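Q: Start with the shorter request: fold the first protein.
A: Done. Sequence, then structure:
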Amino acid sequence: MKKTVIIYGSTTGNAASAAQTIAEKLGSGAVVKEAGSASKSDLTDFDNIILGSSTWGDGELQDDWYTFLPTIKEAGLSGKTVAVFGVGDQFSYSDTFVNAMGELYEAAKSAGAKIIGATSTDGYSFNESSAVKDGKFVGLALDYDNQSDLSDDRIAAWVAQISPEL
């Protein structure tokens, strides 16, 4: 397995918890970084990149991402493998569920990355999400507010899905 960095933005700790769990399940020394303290070298020095964010307000990225998101576009991710995860509340924010994950996906895609890790929308109840393309989430969707009991299993299944490509 090539070197993997997990870069996340978290305000309440849920995305941070997800990032740590993903790193543990990946093993092999995956590096975990907060988006607020990440740098361009965190993108260029790693072959595999996992990006994650909680979704806020009307579907926005977590605050730490606003300074780092332009770096993704500047770095150019051609030749990199990227997976994304998002944390949201599918009931209280049913029209913008995990939209932040959709933003990370679009940034990585426009930077030329190979995107992996799409997952089924089965088992979720929401109206809309910019993180759904072709009937699937573009990455791993987590809802710690309403389905925290499913998070570890969802992470384990997703890591098993993406590991062969990392």
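Q: Next, the second protein, separately.
A: Sequence, then structure:
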Amino acid sequence: MKKLFCYADMYLQKSDWKDMAMLKFCLFSMGLLVGMRIPEEHKKKAGIAAMLVFLLTYIPLMTKFIGIVAENEA
């Protein structure tokens, strides 16, 4: 697992914003495809889980981003 994270770090160092945008679109598309396959009776649970994952990842990402912006403007 450590090796996988090391490769991910190297990939990120060699990537620019366009690569990250493509990665996000890819993951978004995969999420849509998976969402289309969820049975109706489980869609609410899946939606709640997706919202929790979104919030648990988006908030730290934006906190870091805002910190970087504030640091560079000061």
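Q: Describe the second briefly.
A: The helical segments are 2-13, 17-36, 43-73. The chain has a mean pLDDT of 90.
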